[in-house]
Amino acid sequence: MRIALAGLATSHPFTDARTLADHADLVAWEPDPARRARFLTEHPSATLTDDLPSLLATDPDGVVLTVPTPDLADGLTQVLARGLPCLLNKPAAATPDQLRRLDTAAALAPNRVMSSSVLRFAPALADLTFDRDDVVAVRATVRHDVGLWATGYNPWQDDPAVGGGTLVSMGIHGLELLVALLGAEVELAGATTGVRHHGGLRSEDTATLALRWSDGITGCVEVIGATEIEFYEVTLHLRSGEVRTVIEPGDDPVEGLGYRGMIEAFLGLVRDGVTPVPWEQTRAILKVLTTARSATVQA
Questions:
Q1: Per residue in 178-229, pLDDT tens?
Q2: What DSSP designation does 277 have?
Q3: Residues 27, 52: contact at Cβ < 8 Å?
Q4: Cα dihedral value 181, 185, 189, 193, nearest 10
Q5: pLDDT at 299 (0 to 100)
Q6: What is the rounded distance in angstroms from the CA atom of residue 69 to the CA atom of residue 172?
Q7: Domain residues of the chain, as ranges?
Q8: What is the distance between the alpha carbons of residues 218 and 187, in angstroms, rounded to a whole number?
Q9: What is residue 215's DSSP assignment?
Q10: Segments in the chain below pLDDT 70
Q11: Which CATH class is domain 2-116?
Q12: Per-residue pLDDT reduced to its tens digit, 41-60
């Protein structure tokens, strides 16, 4: 099997490659020289190409696409035009315009498109059981520090108009968990953001999203981007009490946070041709996030 890594724009494809290397030969493309050099240091037997068309010309079995968010739709179009399954590293869209273009691209072959927060595949989430009819309200809390962006690292990720900033890049973790549990019939009821600690950010270090599902369940996502600890918590409020789970890095973050599980699910897509994450769920998540981003930028 051959897997192509199209872009190394964030930390995620480096983590993905370490798991993929146990299952496939790797080929990669990335325009940044430092990232290319780092990748070759970690994977000296991998092949690097000069651009995306030459990467796709190596006839991979699947593609992991990680480029700056505005370029994802064009990249996905090229991948799907070759009939290849594609994993889009999160977030796949940060603005309503980006989502419109991405939706058009994904329509070429939605069953071959997979995009998700890794937390969907965390073992702790799989252990959560509940009766949907008993759910009254839900909450997801995301604690992940974004101080690195305040130093100027990957500035496009922290730009609300480009990569979406903290609300989008970290908010997706909480929203993904709730949609994975409750489904895609969700809409944004409100959003607010703030800066409490990391003053050098272009976006924010705290955010809250209010949500409403079509059957009346209400929920919220709390994003804490100024924090010394990392964890992700889901609480389901039931008529009889509550059900709660916490996702933590643990001794093996690749396992505990779902990185390994996501790659295993992607390899299933490569083998079977059917995405494990329905496009309608991904689109619902991105619609909430891009709507929230647009509303809070205007505010």
A1: 999 999 999 999 999 999 999 999 999 999 999 999 999 999 999 999 999 9
A2: S
A3: no
A4: 50
A5: 54
A6: 14
A7: 2-116, 119-261+276-298
A8: 10
A9: T
A10: 298-299
A11: alpha beta
A12: 999 999 999 999 999 999 99
